[in-house]
From TrEMBL:
Residues 357-369 have a biased composition (Basic and acidic residues). It comes from Haloplanus litoreus. InterPro entries: AAA+_ATPase (IPR003593), ABC_transporter-like_ATP-bd (IPR003439), ABC_transporter-like_CS (IPR017871), ABC_transpr_MalK-like (IPR015855), ABC_transpr_MalK/UgpC-like (IPR047641), Mo/tungstate-bd_C_term_dom (IPR008995), NA-bd_OB-fold (IPR012340), OB_MalK-like (IPR040582). It is found in: Cell membrane. Gene3D superfamilies: 2.40.50.100, Nucleic acid-binding proteins, P-loop containing nucleotide triphosphate hydrolases. Part of the ABC transporter complex XacGHIJK involved in the uptake of xylose and arabinose. Responsible for energy coupling to the transport system. This is ABC-type D-xylose/L-arabinose transporter. The keyword Cell membrane applies. It is an enzyme of class 7 (translocase). It catalyses: L-arabinose(out) + ATP + H2O = L-arabinose(in) + ADP + phosphate + H(+); D-xylose(out) + ATP + H2O = D-xylose(in) + ADP + phosphate + H(+). SUPFAM superfamilies: MOP-like (SSF50331), P-loop containing nucleoside triphosphate hydrolases (SSF52540). The complex is composed of two ATP-binding proteins (XacJ and XacK), two transmembrane proteins (XacH and XacI) and a solute-binding protein (XacG). GO terms for cellular component: plasma membrane; transmembrane transporter complex.
Length: 377
């Protein structure tokens, strides 16, 4: 049983970089929590603090209730898997996997048994005598996982372990990692900047921006009820339609264009912020035959057919929207459509944008990362 608890963890670099801004988070025993966010949002630093590779400026790390701030990484019984695999090129797969056990003076017979066991679990038994250079990216990643697995650690920390794999392999390995985590029933923290990866893998997802957790919830909840504008924009592809504006007498008026939408009372009552942002997911935009409540005339701008969905860019009273519609619906550029924005699918967010100097600095600091970056409007 392993719980990991972060209590108001803070990490500052120098005088003006707050990499982790008072993060509190409890990862339950056997849970897979994904930290997701744009480049520079503090994910890796948070993970490195859990591993003991970085000392926090403030706050406590507790493993199974025991404060481990001063415990060396090698004594935390936590395995970390990195993006770069970090395999030893001159050692065989077998000796790469056995390395952590050799370093701990585990008897040879037991090492052999545990290496075979880990290799079988990862389906790489036939690769044990090869060198890393003779393996594909996916196989190398399995070896890196094997090296973490063989120690039978209390918890796994994964820092973008799938980022160097091609798209197809990444999806396969995603499933593999989740299967492994479930089979071992082990506590895992997985870091990624890929929101789709986060949403498919996590029992819970912690969406980070500017060193802080913006929302911590199961994927479905993060998708359906984003806590703020940042989460609404970051999660989901294509991302949520967002309109800036203000509310008066229960009606939302967009700043750009001429859109006015009456919003459900409970939403209006709960939204006191000015300015406000109205959000509606592309798949919630309906195409209807006759005018009624919440319907608008819209002009079709661009149509993109993407396999099983059709993304239609529409202009609705001067505002640009995306609608995800049935691929069999015949629509062309210039067509006029009647669209409905169902009130139960509308969300309102605090429209104040966080200023993001830290995010910009982060991009300068680490140019090697090609992930999505929060953009300011
Ligand atoms: N060793 C360091 N020295 C100075 N600043 C650092 C250091 N490590 C991280 N930072 C800064 O701390 C902030 C958070 O970085 P961190 O690597 O944790 O973000 P991240 O979300 O993991 O980003 P990425 O996806 O790019 O790895 C960034 O502003 C980054 O530039």
């Amino acid at each position: 049983m392993t719980t990991i608890e972060l209590d108001t963890i803070r990490k500052e670099f120098g005088d003006d970089i707050v990499a982790v801004d008072d993060v509190s988070l409890t990862i339950e025993d056997g849970e897979l929590v994904v930290l997701v966010g744009p480049s520079g949002s503090g994910k890796s630093t948070t993970l490195r603090i859990i591993a003991g590779l970085e000392a926090p400026t403030g706050g406590d790390i507790l493993i199974d209730g025991r404060r481990v701030n001063d415990v060396q990484p090698q004594n935390r019984d936590i395995a970390m898997v990195f993006q770069s695999f970090a395999l030893y090129p001159h050692r065989s797969v077998r000796n790469n996997i056995s390395f952590p056990l050799e370093a701990r003076d585990v008897p040879k017979a037991e090492i052999d048994r545990r290496v075979e066991e880990a290799a079988a679990m990862l389906d790489i038994t036939e690769l044990l005598d090869r060198k890393p250079a003779n393996l594909s990216g996916g196989q190398q990643q399995r070896v890196a996982l094997g090296r973490a697995l063989v120690r039978d650690p209390q918890a796994f920390l994964m820092d973008e372990p799938l980022a160097n794999l091609d798209a197809k392999l990444r999806k396969e390995m995603r499933t593999e990692v989740v299967r492994l985590q479930q089979n071992l029933d082990v506590t895992m923290v997985h870091v990624t900047h890929n929101q789709e990866e986060a949403m498919t893998m996590g029992d819970r997802v912690a969406v980070m921006n500017e060193g802080a957790i913006q929302q911590l919830a199961p994927p479905k909840e993060v998708y359906r009820r984003p806590a703020n504008r940042f989460v609404a924009e970051f999660i989901g592809s294509p991302s949520m339609n967002l309109l800036d504006g203000s509310l008066s007498d229960g009606t939302f008026h967009a700043d750009a264009g001429d859109v006015s939408i009456r919003v459900p009372d409970e939403l209006a009552d709960a939204s006191t912020a000015t300015p406000l942002t109205l959000g509606v997911r592309p798949e919630s935009v309906q195409i209807v035959d006759s005018p009624g409540d919440y319907t608008f005339e819209a002009t079709v701008d661009v149509v993109e057919l993407m396999g099983n969905v059709q993304i239609v860019h529409i202009v609705l009273d001067g505002a640009e929207f995306l609608a995800e519609v049935d691929p069999d619906l015949a629509v062309d550029q210039g067509d006029t459509l009647l669209v409905r924005l169902p009130p139960e699918k509308i969300d309102l967010f605090d429209g104040v944008q966080p200023d993001s100097p830290r995010v910009e600095r982060a991009v300068e600091h680490d140019r090697s990362v090609d992930g999505p970056v929060a953009t300011e409007e």
